[in-house]
Amino acid sequence: AILSQAKPALPSFTFWPHYGSLGPRAEMLGLAAARSLGRVAAKGPVATSLRQPAAPWLQRCSGAPVRVNSSVAVNPSAFGLGTAAAVDGSSAVSTRLVDVLLGRGQLVKEGYEKAVGYWLMGASGLLYSMIAIGGYTRLSGSGLSMTDWRIEGRSLPRSEELWKKEFEDYKRFPEYQRLHNGTMELTEFKRIYFVEWFHRMWGRGVGVYFAVPLVYLGARRIVRGPLLLRLTGLLGLGISQAFVGWWMVRSGFDPPEKHTPTLGPNQRPRVSPYRLASHWTAALTLYVGCVWNALTLLRPSPAVAHGTAEALAAAGKCRRLALPVAAAVGITLLSGPFVAGNDAGRAFNTWPKMNYDWVPPEVVRAVANPFANMRLFFEETAVVQFNHRTLAYASVIGALGLSAYGASLPLWSGAAVAVRLLPLAVGAQMCLGIATLLLYVPIELGVAHQAGGVLVLTSVVAVLHALRLPAAGMLALPAAVAAAGAVAAA
């Protein structure tokens, strides 16, 4: 309990062992304060008091009258105010406490939460567009048109002679030799070359958009400690993604039999599905990192968001189911590159059966001896597509179950909306996938399906973020709520 029921006549008191009987909103404020104070009890009490501006905020949150200027036992070092003892009348502790409870000033300089959050949302949007452009590049057959790579990039060829040189380089590799030998004109080559060039340059632009503000915000100490470390890690991953992308493209210059030997001779030239999956996974990781950190800055902290003890308990219950559902959706997304990388979407173009079988014989053969046939799960067309279908069904069922369960719990509004929208996103993505399959993967639907997968991932991230719980270690001091203000209910 938070607002201790100490008598108004008491000028000071020690509150650690005291538990009062209060409403759920006051109780939740206590949990927030306890999380902020951490192990303050172990460090010993120091006399101080709570003054403006904390009192009005506490009163709004608790719904009860708040008396200020009563002395309370609290360790100011828990708020980052040093070890010197505070004295009655100190407003620094109160101000810092409100900042901690609201999450102000911990990740970014106070007042910059929205600006940094919107910048990260912009980065998320650019990464989303990058993923969609990458899908178009692959489906349009443009990804192998540029046969070299420079990290700094380069301009398009500026003369007809330079275009012809690039075309001659392209002719040396399997894609031209097996698919376009003698049938592709320079004009068509220019088209696919531009698509790949634009994809690469767009990626560099996204990197500049992220890196330049990050350096500035870090140098000015606007972005702080943990968040600066996370964003620097994302920048490093983004730089490495450029190298992973070239590593993936380079595999397409080899005979495809080198990377997928189980498929036999005379395969269609394409990049290694394993390297495609690596590139896809890194892209999704970058996207999730930006979205998650943006939401952390733009949404209220967990202690404030859940609002009541009942909502906090409900979030814990719902989260236990949300995690396996998120895992199912994630595995489904990671199985997608193996469908794309093996051109598995251009076979078994029927639904709900795969041609005439619910379970193709290739799947039965692979499952009969999974260790000896391990590569079949990632290379055999029928097995790869069956896996993707089955995982999609599991994702839809899980999302529906999570939504139904969440509807029965008193979740805070943000979590309730996110949980309800998840099955809509997953179901729409499954329907889009079925349409893409039945229509033999037209480019437009193929790109939409890839982009839709990222939207599903966004929905999952929104659910997990809304169901975040306050730090568990800080739940040990519910009585530390009194530190929120040495306040007493009238």
| Oligomeric grouping of the chains | single chain
Query: What distance lies between the first and last C-alpha atoms, to the nearest angstrom?
Result: 15 Å
Query: Strand tally, please?
Result: 3
Structural class: mainly alpha
**Share of residues in helices:** 55-70%
- Low-confidence sequence ranges: 1-28, 34-96, 473-490
Number of helices: 17
Q: Kindly state the mean pLDDT as a whole number? A: 81
3D shape: flat
Summarize the main sheet.
3 strands, mixed
Residue share in β-strands = under 5%
| SSE string | EHHEHEHHHHHHHHHHHHHH
Provide the spatial order of strands within the biggest beta sheet.
Answer: 1-3-2
Q: Rg, please?
A: 28 Å
If you had to describe this structure to a student in words, what would you say it looks like?
The chain is mostly helical. It contains 17 helices and three strands. The chain has helices at 24-37, 40-43, 54-62, 92-102, 113-139, 160-170, 174-180, 186-219, 225-251, 273-298, 302-305, 309-341, 361-368, 376-379, 381-407, 413-438, 443-466; strands at 12-13, 46-49, 71-74. The chain starts with 11 loop residues before the first strand and ends in a 24-residue tail after the last helix. Mean pLDDT is 81; it is low at 1-28, 34-96 and 473-490.
